Structures are given as structure tokens and as C-alpha cells.
Amino acid sequence: MMVVPYKEEHSGKKEQVAKMFNNISGRYDFLNHFLSLGIDIRWRKKAIHALDSIQPKLILDVATGTGDFAIQSLTLNPDKVIGIDISDGMLAVGRQKIKDRQLELKVELQNGDSENLPFETNKFDAVIVAFGVRNFENLEKGLAEMFRVVRPGGKVIILEFSKPTYFPFKQLYNFYFKFVLPKIGKVVSQDQAAYTYLPESVQAFPDGNDFLKILSGLGYKNTTCKPLTFGISSLYTGIK
Fold first, then answer.
1. CA-closest candidate to residue 71, choices 101, 111, 39
2. Spans in the chain with pLDDT lower than 50
3. In this structure, are residues 83 and 107 in contact, taking their beta carbons and an 8 Å threshold?
4. According to the model, what pLDDT value does residue 31 have?
5. What SS3 string covers 91-134?
6. What three-state secondary structure class fits 236?
7. Residue 34's pLDDT is what?
8. Alpha helix (H) ranges present in the chain?
9. pLDDT at 38
10. Which of 6, 160, 174, 216 is the 20 to 30 Å CA partner of 200?
């Protein structure tokens, strides 16, 4: 069964995810760093380091949100980073961030559907996505689109939440994720569904080897999975 933020509504997952992120966009960055104790920043740095070997000049950041991953990828000194997202609210926050840092010539954010990317085949040296593929309405379609737009020999980097398996961290984490995080998220973001959807979507996501099988089935080569911070998240890589 597909997990959606607003179970009482009859719209598709894509529309609901866009609405959810529009609702929480103003508090998203604060909550992201606060609820993860800032660990998400370190995870993104590790993901970006995975691109050191190819030194990409043109990068696509899928489900860019407020542009944090796109901005962090500038440490690779690319010529251009394009971020794409379906939430106008998140993009507005990201564009202001880019303007404040005078990065307009390096980073461009645009509205678009991750499952129907508006770019030609083999365009990008690298495609990156942080905590976004879990929100795809059609996971395989989105992953296939990322594969299509990256050039042969180019690299795809995917950061996504996963399910810890080690006792007792698994039990502590599940309690925090299911009971503490939704309450804090509701108070700060004023959207109860958003931070109830988060743990539900993580539970439903095919992580680890299951995700690697999907990538391989779509044509990705040299796929790897590296668990981060006791398996709270995982760093996936693949080559075209």
C-alpha cells in the first residue's frame, strides 16, 4: 500500500507530497537539523565526497527542497548545479538562500517533476538526491529518469533514511522516530501529517539490498550501499 501524508484526501501521492512540503517549507531547515541533531549535514558531506573521483562539472540535485544539498555540492567546484523540486514553497526558501549567498551563477532551482525530468538524455555528469526518492509516487520511474539524464560513466548518489537493525539502538531509534519526532514536528511545523508520514514512509521504503536490486534492475552498475550512523540512513551509489 502506498504511504501518503494526508490519508483522508483522495489526491495522488505526488500532489500530497507537494502540499506537505509547501506547508512546512518555512520551518523545514530548522526542523531538519534540529530533529537529526545536525547529523544530516555530515551525511551530505560524505555523499558529496563520493563524487570526488569524477569531479563533475554539471550536477543535477533531484528533490532539491530548499537547496541544501545543491549548495553543499559546490565544494566539488562544478560549473553549474541545477536543483529540481515539485514544491514551490521549498524552492522559494532555497532561492532566497542562494540569493543571500550570491550563488545565482552557480546554482539554479526550478520547479519540475522528478519522475518526468525536463532534461535531455546523458546531460549531467552526476545526479544527487538526499531524502527524496522515498517520496516518489513511482520509485522505479524516478530512478529510471535519474539514470537517463546522467551521462555514461556518470555517477548517481542517493541518500535515504533506512531502518537500523542493531539492538538496542534499533529500539531507541524507533521510539524516537515514531513517538517523539512527530510531536515536535507537529508543534513547530503546525502540520501533524508531515512528521507522521516521515516514519511511515521510511518503514515502507525498500532499503539496503532491496534497493540495490532495484537499481541494478534499472541498469545501474557498481552499485554500493554504505550504512551511516548505525544505519539511520544509507548512502547508495551507482554508475551509468
1. 101
2. none
3. yes
4. 78
5. HHHHHHHHHHCCCCCCEEEEECCCCCCCCCCCCEEEEEEECCHH
6. strand
7. 76
8. 13-24, 28-35, 39-49, 68-72, 88-100, 139-149, 169-175, 181-189, 192-204, 209-217
9. 82
10. 216
> Global pTM?
0.95
Cβ(108)–Cβ(81) below 8 Å: yes
Q: What is the pLDDT of residue 184?
A: 85
Take residue 237 and report the three cell numbers written for it.
Answer: 551509489
pLDDT at 1: 65
Amino acid of residue 170: K
What distance in Å separates the CA atoms of residue 167 and residue 10, rounded to the nearest whole number? 39
What pLDDT, on the 0 to 100 scale, is given for residue 2?
Answer: 85
Query: How many other β-carbons are positioned within 10 Å of the β-carbon of residue 45?
Result: 11
Task: Say what the pLDDT of residue 8 is.
Answer: 86
Measured from the Cβ of residue 12, the count of other Cβ atoms closer than 10 Å reads 12
**129 contact partners, CB below 8 Å, separation of at least 6:** 61, 62, 63, 69, 114, 146, 157, 158, 159
* Residues belonging to the chain: 240
